[in-house]
């Protein structure tokens, strides 16, 4: 009994001692309205994300009433004319992983409060503020603006819940749009994708990726495929060739040489490389040439492949495609029929038979 009394006394003492050091905190519960949301989009290797709250229309008159036209004093906080918070609750926040152009203006990487204005004539503004931790527009200060730009709003079908989305994606660009009620607020976002990828490649190649030929090849191949940064790419492909000289690697270097105006040097490199190319490599190279419109050169490569691998049904089938593309019906039929005599796998057989039917020879 004495022990129980002692324990109770200790617990009471602990509660009294700590009560002054505990701040009352409610548990986290769902918001009853305007739920939080985040949307993001990758452009190149860069990301744009928007965190916001989603009010509903709820049969209310939105533009000009719930969201006043133009700039307005909020009646609290900074007491300055402010744009609309582009949502509800805290600031709507846009985050850019790399520097970007927003509505044509350069914006550094980072997070910004995202605001809009709307006018009766469907014009408006987008505003990015370096002050992105505030609540709504109450503490908006124009001194913290990173960007102000004009926009033209669009009319759209009714959207009950305020929604951000990304549309009209290209290699370098996207449109960030806010859709609510029957209005759309579009904002163009553009990244210098090639510059960003190449700068990132330089950094990655200083790490584990740079210790393998594959890392160097992938960096040089990106430059080749996008016809950019030839000087850097040539250094990388030469380093890769010094470690592992393959036909595929030489193909990339030859392509870079052509893009740099050294076509003869590139052709000679590939001609030399073909002497050690495998059947698969020659076949792939032939199709690259065929798809690039250099049909006669593709046929030359396919012919070399059939000479080195005369019992390959696939090599003869590919040669048939080369001739068919050129319009040389006689040699195309001869090549496809040769392929069928070599016990081709099912997919090769089906392809040869398809072409022979098209050519009226089956």
Task: Based on Cα principal axes, name the global outline.
Answer: elongated
- Which segments are poorly predicted (pLDDT under 50) over 5 or more consecutive residues? 9-20
Overall tally of domains: 2
Indicate the structural class: alpha+beta
What is the subunit arrangement here?
Answer: single chain
CATH architecture of the largest domain: Alpha Horseshoe
Q: What share of the residues lie within helices?
A: 40-55%
Task: Tell me the strand percentage band.
Answer: 15-25%
CA(first)-CA(last) distance? 104 Å
In round numbers, the mean pLDDT is: 91
What's the CATH H-level homologous superfamily of the largest domain?
Tetratricopeptide repeat domain
Number of strands: 12
CATH topology of the largest domain: Serine Threonine Protein Phosphatase 5, Tetratricopeptide repeat
Radius of gyration: 32 Å
Can you summarize the main beta sheet? 6 strands, antiparallel
> Strands across the major sheet, in which order?
1-2-5-8-9-10
Given this structure, which CATH class of the largest domain is correct?
Answer: Mainly Alpha
């Amino acid at each position: 009994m004495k022990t129980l009394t002692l324990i109770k006394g200790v617990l009471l003492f602990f509660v009294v001692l700590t009560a002054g050091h505990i701040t009352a905190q409610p548990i986290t519960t769902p918001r009853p309205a305007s739920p939080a949301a985040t949307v993001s989009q990758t452009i190149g290797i860069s990301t744009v994300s928007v965190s916001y709250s989603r009010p509903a229309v709820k049969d209310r008159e939105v533009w000009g009433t719930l969201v006043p036209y133009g700039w307005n004093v909020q009646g609290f906080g900074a007491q300055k004319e402010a744009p609309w918070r582009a949502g509800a609750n805290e600031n709507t926040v846009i985050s850019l992983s790399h520097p970007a152009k927003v509505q044509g203006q350069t914006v550094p990487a980072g997070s910004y409060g995202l605001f809009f204005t709307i006018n009766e004539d469907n014009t408006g503004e987008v505003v990015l503020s370096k002050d992105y931790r505030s609540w709504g527009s109450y503490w908006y200060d124009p001194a913290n603006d990173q960007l102000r730009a004009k926009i033209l709003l669009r009319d759209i079908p009714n959207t009950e819940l305020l929604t951000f989305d990304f549309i009209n994606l290209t290699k370098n660009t996207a449109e960030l749009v806010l859709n609510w009620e029957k209005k759309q607020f579009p904002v163009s976002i553009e990244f210098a994708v090639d510059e960003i990828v190449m700068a990132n490649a330089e950094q990655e190649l200083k790490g584990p990726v740079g210790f393998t030929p594959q890392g160097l090849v992938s960096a040089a191949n990106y430059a080749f495929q996008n016809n950019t940064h030839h000087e850097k790419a040539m250094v990388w492909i030469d380093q890769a060739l010094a470690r592992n000289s393959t036909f595929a690697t030489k193909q990339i270097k030859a392509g870079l040489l052509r893009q740099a105006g050294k076509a003869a040097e590139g052709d000679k490199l590939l001609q030399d490389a073909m002497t050690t190319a495998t059947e698969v490599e020659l076949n792939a190279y032939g199709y690259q040439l065929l798809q690039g419109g250099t049909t006669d050169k593709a046929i030359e490569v396919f012919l070399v492949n059939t000479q080195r691998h005369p019992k390959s049904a696939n090599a003869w089938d590919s040669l048939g495609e080369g001739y068919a593309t050129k319009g040389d019906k006689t040699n195309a039929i001869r090549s496809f029929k040769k392929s069928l005599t070599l016990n081709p796998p099912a997919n090769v057989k089906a392809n040869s038979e398809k072409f022979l039917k098209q050519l009226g020879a089956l």
